[in-house]
Amino acid sequence: MATEQQNQPYNEEAVHKMLQACTDGNLQLISSYLEESRQYTNPPLAAALQDQATGISPLMAAADAGHLNICQKLLEEGAPWNAVCRKGLCAGDYAMNKQHWDIVNLLVDAGTKAELLLGAAIRLQMQNGGMDPNLAPSTESRPVGHEPCTKPDYLNQNVRYNAANTALLDEDDDAVMMEWERPLMDAHASIITGNSQKGKVVLNVGFGMGIIDTALQKLEPKMHFIIEAHPDVYKKMLNDGWDKRPNVRICFGRWQDELPKLMNEGVMFDGMFYDTYGEHFTDLEDFHSYVAKMLSKPNGIYSFFNGLAPDNLFFHGVACQCVKLQLQQMGLDSEFATCQIEVKDSEWDGVRRKYWHGRDVYYLPIVTWNNGHIVREHFGAGIQIQVNNDKRRKSDATDDDNKKTKI
Fold it and tell me: Domains in the chain: how many in total?
């Protein structure tokens, strides 16, 4: 960015000067670098350039040093919130590691807004025929562990249960479901039945290895609906006698086809759970539109397997916030209970790609109806009624003080 090198304004020396200014918190110098960079690109590329050796960006440097005003400035100038360094860390990770929570909140807000806008743009493009969600995304030049998990051809693949019956694998040897999930599925089952209450009407979308369905059966549901779309998994269900279990109704097909049928029958659910494989993020959004129509009021509970952005904790948090805002628009409140979970490296033997990346905390979604939404629905928006929340729902999978569960 030095004026004597205007023909090469983005050389290594210029990048290092920008990073040092961000570390030092020198807003005046940063502003001058940005204005000089604006002569070549707008927004200025200087806000986004990363060190070639480390991958550190100006936003990462400012976040690591705790300079909130610098982070705000860089975001305003187009710095990408989701750029990652050579270690796979983003600016939000740097801020979290140093406990700069004001910067963490700033970056979560920026990331959420960006992702919601991007999601809306992708959906609009799909509606206009410009993008086909059934086309598998390119995986060229990506590490196996960071390949997208979307697999539009999954239902046309053969799947198999391994010899130990501890994993369900697709043709690529990617895991559809694994035994280590059992403690989590037990917690999900307890959640959607309102603290393991018996006699509920429940729905599970995605049978897989039948882990959550086994847990739900122990709670003697009044009616237990299972939607499963893969023919090999459906065949295994029949061989294991799931179609003969009391109060179990298997709906063989895609949930996109089966839920409208159940809705036409007037079926409502006390508890709903979503755990499909290979679908696009827009499918989860579409499923939520059915949650808003088929989850019983006022005490219905919904949850889903939370594998959103599994390879980066900060990105995971942003994805959870996006889901929370979407559900909020439908009158649903969301919280995420922290569950301790240990997944040993040996669990992945024979699996090509991990879908869980070494974290020991799982954020379990608990989605319930908002009291104010129900009041407005029944009495109209113009009437104000005091709602008593003293007798709020409690669950054995949450702790009232810190929302932590050990599994």
Answer: 2
If asked whether residues 191 and 236 sit together in one domain, one would say yes
Print burial letters for 317-327: b (CB count within 10 Å at least 16), e (below 16): bbbbbbbbebb
Do 16 and 74 reside in the same domain of the chain? yes
Question: Euclidean distance between the first and final Cα of the chain, in Å?
Answer: 53
Residue 138 DSSP one-character state: P
> Coil, helix or strand for 286?
helix
Residues 291 and 363 sit within 8 Å (Cβ to Cβ): no
Strands, E, within 142-256: which ranges?
Answer: 160-161, 167-169, 175-178, 201-205, 223-228, 248-252
**Which residue segment(s) compose the domain that 73 sits in?**
7-120
Rounded-to-integer distance, Cα 275 and Cα 303, Å: 9
Residue 351 CA to residue 359 CA, distance in Å, equals 18
As beta bridge partners, residue 335 has: 366
pLDDT bracket for residue 138 (50, 70, 90):
very low
The two tokens of residue 27 are 């807003």
Q: Is 260 within a domain?
A: yes
H, E, C per residue of 261-272: HHHHCCCCECEE
Among 355, 366, 353, residue whose Cα is nearest residue 397? 366
Residue found by looking up tokens 């909140």 in the block: 105
- Pair 224, 348 in one domain: yes
Helix (H, G, I), strand (E, B) or coil at 395: coil
| Cis geometry, peptide bond prior to residue 221 (ω within 30 degrees of 0) | no
Whether residue 75 lies inside any domain: the answer is: yes
Alpha-carbon span 168 to 115, nearest angstrom: 31
Band of the pLDDT at 400, cuts 50, 70, 90?
very low
Token couple for 193: 């039945």
Co-location of 54 and 200 in the same domain: no
Phi-psi region of 199 (alpha: psi -120 to 50; beta: other; left: phi over 0): left
What three-state secondary structure class fits 307?
coil
Question: Is the confidence at residue 2, as pLDDT, over 50?
Answer: no
Domain membership of residue 245 (yes or no) is yes
Residue 83: inside a domain: yes
